[in-house]
Every structure is written in structure tokens, then in C-alpha cells.
Design brief:
With 293 residues, the chain is α/β, with parallel strands linked by helices. It folds into 2 domains: 15-94, 434 Repressor (Amino-terminal Domain); 98-292, Endonuclease Chain A (Endonuclease, Chain A). The protein has 12 helices and 6 strands.
Length: 293
Amino acid sequence: MIERRANRGATVSTVLGRRLGGELLRLRENRNLKQPHAAEALSASVAKIAKMERGLVPMRDPDIRALCHLYGVEDEVRIQYLLRLARADRERRRAKGWWDQYPQLASMSEYFALEDVAEEIRTWEHSFIPGLLQTPEYARALAVGNHHWEDVGEIEPFVEARMARQKRLAGPGALRLRAVVHEAALRQLVGGREVMRRQLTHLLEVMDQERAQLQVLPFSAGAHPGMTNAFTILSFAEPGALDVVRTDTLSVKLWLESETDSVHHVSAFERITRAGLAPRGSAELIRSIHEEL
């Protein structure tokens, strides 16, 4: 799914909302019913049903029960599962976070919100250090080098936001981060030698403090499943929430939300980790590159 620019209000599509909407869509189609039938049951418009099934609006418990009755769902366990999804989605939509103070980064707000409530993140990067592990100097140099910003004044808010994200790696309920980084990313002189020395030092400190599990995939690993593209897998604690995969290209940011996509990328990530160095060997390689600089 191509990521759309995030909007405030009720027309924001969320992962849990899309999951719930997809469940209701399948139930409706299994009964060979059309959207107007669902709209009539709720005394609502067809447009509202379409938004519900696409995860664009929060859903009320009475509406879900009415639709379950229409679709012939009598299993209370199944109904409670749908209600839990709806409540979790409503709570997430109401929540505000640190990212609200950065309107320049509105297009990333859904990712920030998902990352903020994720239980675990697995990320594979072959070109640069993952954002959750970057120093301010490295993040700034990366932003400047990307030539992405029309207004250079937005670079500092970008750097601040990236540092704010890293608070999830410490404290109660800390995010579990498993990162695999290609050796090429460690040797790419983003910002110059001094910036890279500080960045590599930071990686070693994070590993020493056990704030993240970091592995390096060395050049010697040869061909591997991650050669096509980098990706991030977000896992959630909410009942019924499947893993979500985020991958970027030059022109689009993609959310992959199907179970098939999730299984495929989790399998690829595990194969990449097996090809990578163990944490101790990874730290030794990072120290070696640091000394070369």
C-alpha cells in the first residue's frame, strides 16, 4: 500500500483500522452482501461503510455488533475479538505524541505513531545506519546529502524528531530493537571521518548498554536475501495486530500489511541475521573500522 500524506482527524487510515475493516469486508463478502446492505443496517451512508472497510474512520461497538448480526456472526469470541481491535484502534487514534510538534514531518506521522506503540522492531539496512541508532551529526549529514529538503530549515526539526524517536529504546516498556546493518553502511563516510567515528562509538555504546541487538553483515557474507532492498518490520502487542512491513523506494513509501508479506520478510530477516556476524564479532568489526578512521 502506498503511503499517503497523513491528515489529522477521522480520515486517517491506521494499521489496526485497516485490519478491522478487512475482517468486516470478508464477513460481508462471505454472505454475498453489498455495501448498501451494511449501510442500511447502520442507517448510514455507503460512503461511511467504504471508509470503515478501508480503516479510515474509528468504529463504534454498536456498529460492529450490528454488522456482525447482519453477517450472521454468532460466535461471541469472534465478536469480542473484533471489538478489541476497534477499541485498540480508537485508543491509538486519540493518542497524541511527541511527533505532533513537528508539522514539517506530517507525512511520517503514522510511522512515528506506529513505532511509538510497537513492541519490537526488526530492521535491515544496507546503505546507512538505522534512524533509531543515529547520532545527531550523522542524521544531519544524511539529510543534507539526500538533497530531499526544499527548505533547509526543516533539517533541524528532522534531526530533533529522529533523536526523540530514540527515547523508546530506554525506560519502562522499552522498544525491542533488532538491527542488521551491512558493512558498507559502516564504511560509508557520511559527514566525514569525525562524524563517522562518533557514530561508530555510539553504536558500540548502545551495544554495551544492551539497548539494542545489533549485527553486522560483512562483505564476506556474499549473496544474501537482503540485496534487493532494506526494510523494517514492526510488531505490536494488540490482539489481532499482524506484523507490518515498511520499505521505501526513491518515489514511494510502502506499507506491506498482508500475512504473506509479513511471513516473507520475517523469513528474509532471519536468514540475513544467520548470515551476519554474532554480536561479539559485530562489535569487533565496528571497532576495527573505527580504528581505521
